[in-house]
Design a protein that fits this description.
This protein has 10 helices and no strands. By secondary structure, the chain is mainly α. The radius of gyration is 21 Å and the shape is globular.
């Protein structure tokens, strides 16, 4: 990566923002490989995703004000994972996945003391359905109920997929934007979460 950055004129012009579309694309291709690809596909796509990490780190290493490199990234990740796994690297005990999550969340809360809302750190750049699942989970933590609808009662994950497709088809027929509709409802849920936090605070 260092050699490519040093000698490739295209690569020399790239900054962190320029790389974002490639990061999104490579992440999507890893997901495709996991869900429908071969082991060879997965190996290749993980390599492409790793290249994005290396690329960002190489750009960061050249920053005049606050440089860091891939070793700094790896060191920070190692320290974080050690802190978040006290049942592996320290004397804590966790015999169930739920107990592991308790340790993880406690360590994360200690690391992110500046956060004042359960919504802090939830990226708006997530795909809308993933964002919806995350926001509804955060809302439950502060007692904000999830919206309910008479159509929302599938019996399996496959039926859930059919129900989502049916709703998207309905939106298409009526000229509605399904993506916008979900994101607008999420803004309402976020506002409800913040109101509940303010009332409890």
């Amino acid at each position: 990566m260092h050699a490519v950055r040093e000698r490739c004129v295209w690569t020399q012009q790239i900054d962190h923002r320029d790389l974002v579309p490639y990061l999104v694309e490579e992440s999507a291709e890893v997901i495709d490989a996991v869900e429908a690809g071969t082991r060879a596909d997965l190996r290749e796509e993980l390599g492409d995703l790793l290249w994005q990490v290396l690329f960002h780190a190489e750009i960061a290493a050249g920053d005049l004000d606050d440089p860091f490199d891939i070793d700094d990234v790896a060191r920070g990740l190692t320290e974080k994972m050690v802190r978040r796994h006290p049942h592996v690297f320290a004397g804590a005990v966790a015999s169930t996945p739920e107990e592991v999550l308790v340790h993880w969340n406690a360590a994360k809360a200690a690391e992110k003391r500046e956060r004042t809302s359960v919504l802090d750190g939830v990226s708006d750049h997530m795909p809308s359905l993933s964002l919806a699942q995350k926001v509804i989970g955060k809302a439950a933590q502060v007692g904000v109920p999830a919206p309910h609808h008479r159509l929302a009662d599938p019996a399996s994950e496959a039926e859930l997929g059919d129900a989502l497709l049916a709703l998207v088809q309905l939106a298409r027929e009526r000229g509605w934007d399904a993506e916008r509709a979900l994101r607008e409802r999420l803004r309402t849920v976020r506002a409800d979460v913040r109101a509940a936090e303010t009332a409890a605070g």
